[in-house]
Amino acid sequence: MTEHFAPGALAKQVKRSGALRLGSAVLAVVAVGAVLQFGSPLWRRAGLVPVAQRFVALSLPHPRDLPTHLGPGRRLVFDFDVANYTGAAIEQPWRASVVGTDRNAFLLRSGTVAVPAGGTRSVEVSVRVPQHVSPALVEVGLPGRHLAPVEFHLAPVPSRAAPGPSTYAASPSGVPPGAGGR
Amino acid sequence: MSTLVVPEPALAGPEVGSGMATSASQGITPRRRPGDLVTTALLLGALDVAVSHPHFLAARLLALAIALLLPGALAVEAARASFGSRYAQAALVLGAGVAVIMGLALVMSTALPPLGVERPLDREPFAIGLNVVAAALALVCPKGRDPVLNLVKPSEPLRFGRPRPWHLVLLLPVLATVGVERLNSGHSAIVVQLTIGASALALVVGFLEARAGRHQRAQTVLFCTALALLYLFSFRGNYLFGYDVQQEFQRFSYTFGAGRWSRPADGDPYASMLSITALPAALSKLTSISGMYLFKGLYPVFVALVPGLSYELARRWLNGAAAFVGAAYMIVLTDFSSQLVALARQETAFLFFALLVVALFAEELSGKRRQAAIAALLAALVVSHYSTSYVAVALLGSTWLGYGVLRLALRRRAVPAVGLVTVLLGVGMVVGWDVLYTHSTHNVTKFVASMAVQGLRILPYGKGQSLIQRYLSGNVGTTMSPARYYAAVGAAARASEPWLHPYPASLTRLYPAHAAPPTYSLPALLPGSATIMKDLVILVDELLLLAIACGVALSFLRRLTKRGVRAPLELSVMMLAFLAFLALIRLSGTVAGSYNADRAQLQASIVLAVALGMSAEWLIVRLRAGAVLVAALILMLLAGTGETAVITGGPPSAILANSGTQYDYFVISSGEVSAARWLVANMGPHHVVYTDDFGPLRIWDATSFAPLPHTWLTPTALDRGAWVYATASDVVQRRAYGSISGARVSYRFPARFLHHVDDLVYSDPTARVYH
Q: How far apart, in Å, are the Cα atoms of B765 and each of A22, B139, B587, B730?
């Protein structure tokens, strides 16, 4: 059976229905937000939440001021950074080695650095290059991590001509003889 | 037992839900009652509470919803603008909300800093501004009714707990997000494929609903399907997906950091567009939702509304099924889902363009109210995206001129939908905003310069191809060998970069080019079907284009013969203008260089939905070919998403595997972001950066470094002393990507050469920096 309402009653009915609809929409938005936020462990387990990639990065913090020349038996001074994006504190072993012009590699120094989650730690390396090595390349690697070692080239100079410890002089565009330029 | 039946005419009228009808009928001017503004006040209160509790995601989402919809609803009510259907009205409300926020951000950024408010887009000042604007809009709304409740009034009594099968389409965007996030987490693409299959099924459901005359359902299906397909791409990867969007995000980040929008001093067109600067910055500040999630989640909503608006336009003159075919065409175009998510500015602009077209032909609007709505939509379009507005204004001008000539010839006196005032408004706004205010005319000057040097270049790229092949493939590039690439970029670098200090040939010839390791390919379910499938897709694509052309012809023919369904002659002229524009851009390399042909087709499809619908109606009525048309749409959908590669084998699209060229290009790793940030922080003022073709996206996404890095990453073109940024593809796959003069190449990353000449100064598992 059909029932007609007076315009005033109709207006109230429609207004009430509209308010109900609006309220439902607001509640729905709030509910979605709450479910997404408080259910996040569940979503993470189901693979529905973006997962941060976890890795360790290695860098030379003064790339424009790396030593460029070094003779046999001289002191090499440089530092490197280890950045930790694994989400947990790590004890990261490292190895610094030098490759001579004869392509033989010699371990210069190794150690372990503690890096907090999300942090970066700098390690200074100060070491005398063996007399019998004419250094051409210095490498720093992180054993156990899938990343290439950072490295920088050195132009070998005769031991008597070497002016002392390597310095953080600005790197010219030249690279070791035969390489063409940095 | 009595049943409540609300009289339909009363519900449909503009004065429903108020005492205004009574008052008006009694000749009494309605008075504003405090009760009419209760909903507005409550929602503003909820907004203020929500923005002050950003640690709750629910509060952030609620703030976003209210900030977008409340000002829009009030603006629509204040303007007494009505588009007829609920769907179009909802789209109008969202569009108006976006326009209000852009306008408010512009005004506050311009007016408040001189008054001492240096960061007007920060949360507190912008929230106050939004409250003031909303209150002001509420006060100019029609008296005697609640402006918010009047918009959400139900057309039928509200019913809960009656799920219907078609309601499942509402879950499509959720399914898409679930599928793509699982793929991001290293799982298989099975849920993504399920989403694509469900989207194809949704097209069938939508077609049936439209055929049954359930227009709102058909529009909802179009919206959900479009949004699901867009989300498949926009949520891919943990960073933004696509090319342009990285630069857009940079400009957003700058505005966000500054807390205000500033007119770019260098005429930078990206920084001039409020849609990607002031809008996301204001919304992100207000709601505490990260800009990246606004770009990923909100902007696709804007453009997902567009196919439903095309349906709205088409169904005025066509039956539902035909209108659905016309409207769904946009969704199934290859670039709809994969390209538009990378163009936030165009996602916004397309919404305004579609609303503009609907407004132009809306019978519900008339007089000054109509002109005001058109002017507001034009203004929003112009500040959203320059290219879309150029095309829109050019086509409005063409339509006015073409229809004017026809009216003279046919001696008609009908009032045109596109009047001279509209055209002048459009031209004035483009000139005012792009030329006089932001000086962001780079695109136009580039086009004019290109035109002066090269002419129209009617034949596109594709040397060595036949004319038909060149037409079918459009302005797409070719490929070249790594060795030729090395030689070509070496010569080009010396010619175009006189500052270059290249390495000597005696050194570089020791490191010749090598082919890249093969890319991942999906195994074929049907071996040997690749060519057949490719040809079939091209055939269907061209047949649909032919159907559009026939539809335009049919619309003129029916006008002249006065038989069958007749769309307005003016709309036919507009469709013809779009068709001519499409033909020009498909054939001319010069035009295509300024406005991508595929994006032009997407914009055109908003209007040409009517033309395709005309042909579709003829095919459905005369040949009963509705099923064939839907099958054609589904085939296009599967090809556009790359799903056909599952059958034919071949390179997967980025949404189907965690490897492949598209994955290498668009899916950015955290290691790449970290390396890019390290590079920009350490490279100092002398920054010549080299990377391969895929590298700039990473640098732009992660940093404020705006120039385009040098992308000729070969021993022959590398500058001594430059920085080199190596991407995950370079490091992990040993595959680099390059291009020159429209020719693309993949080659083995020159790691040995770089090891020889450069220091490796940054290293992580997926990226490196050499110097």
A: 50, 59, 45, 11
Beta carbons of B22 and A7 less than 8 Å apart: yes
Q: Per the CB < 8 Å rule, is B19 touching A8?
A: yes
B61/A11 CB distance under 8 A: no
- Of residues B491 and B448, the one with the higher pLDDT is B491
Contacts of B3 in chain A (CB under 8 A): 1-3
Q: For the domain A56-156, what is the CATH code?
A: 2.60.40.10
Residues 295-334 of chain B whose Cβ lies under 8 A from any Cβ of chain A: none
Confidence of residue B465 (pLDDT cuts 50, 70, 90): low
Beta bridge partners of B739: B744
In this prediction, residue A169 carries a pLDDT of 37
Report helix, strand or coil for B502.
strand
ipTM over 0.90: no
DSSP string, B104-125: HHHHHHHHSGGGT-S-TTSHHH
pLDDT in tens, B95-146: 999 999 999 999 999 999 999 999 999 999 999 999 999 999 999 888 878 8
Question: Which residues in chain A touch residue B501, judged by CB atoms under 8 angstroms apart?
Answer: 173, 181
| Distance (Å) from the alpha carbon of B184 to chain A's nearest alpha carbon | 7
| Residue A67 Cα distances to A158, B44, B720, angstroms | 16, 62, 18
Region at B128 (left for phi over 0; alpha for psi -120 to 50; beta for the rest): alpha
User: In this complex, which of A48, A151, A173 lies closest to B182 when CB atoms are compared?
Assistant: A48
Strand segments, DSSP code E, in B220-316 are none
In DSSP terms, A171 is beta-bridged to none
Q: How far is B710 from chain A (nearest CA, A)?
A: 17
For chain A, domain boundaries: 7-45, 56-156
Structure tokens at B209: 């609903």
Name the residue among A14, A148, A181 with its Cβ closest to that of B17. Answer: A14
Q: Please write down the HEC assignment for all residues of B304-364.
A: HCHHHHHHHHHCCCCCHHHHHHHHHHHHHCHHHHHHHCCCHHHHHHHHHHHHHHHHHCCCC
Mutate to test the interface with B, among A35, A48, A145 (most CBs of B within 10 A): A48
Contact of B99 with B75, CB cutoff 8 Å:
yes
Query: Position B406: which residue type?
Result: L
Instruction: Compute the distance between CA of residue B310 and CA of residue B286 in angstroms, rounded to an integer.
Output: 32
Best B25, B49, B761 member to test A by mutation, with max A CBs in 10 Å, is: B761
Quote the CA–CA distance of B17 and B151 in Å, as a whole number.
10
Residues of A with Cβ-Cβ distance to B51 under 8 angstroms = none
Contacts of A140 in chain B (CB under 8 A): none
Query: Which has the minimum average pLDDT: A79-83, B451-455, B703-707?
Result: B451-455
A74-78, B455-459, B476-480, B702-706: the lowest-pLDDT one: B455-459
DSSP annotation of B724 reads E
Of the pLDDT bands very low, low, confident and very high (cuts 50, 70, 90), residue B693 is very high
Cβ neighbors of B411 (< 8 A, separation 6 or more) are none
* Count of helices and strands (H, E) across chain B: 37, 8
Q: Quote the CA–CA distance of B1 and A172 in Å, as a whole number.
A: 95
User: What DSSP designation does A53 have?
Assistant: P
To the nearest whole Å, the CA of A35 is away from the closest chain B CA by: 9
What is the rounded distance in angstroms from the CA atom of residue A55 to the CA atom of residue A118? 10
* Pair B665, B710: CB distance under 8 Å: no
- Find the closest chain B residue to A14 by CA distance: B17
CA distance B41 to chain A (A): 13
Helices B367-384 and B386-410, axial angle in degrees (round to 10): 140
Rg (chain B; Cα; Å): 27
Nearest to A2 among B5, B18, B157 (CB): B5
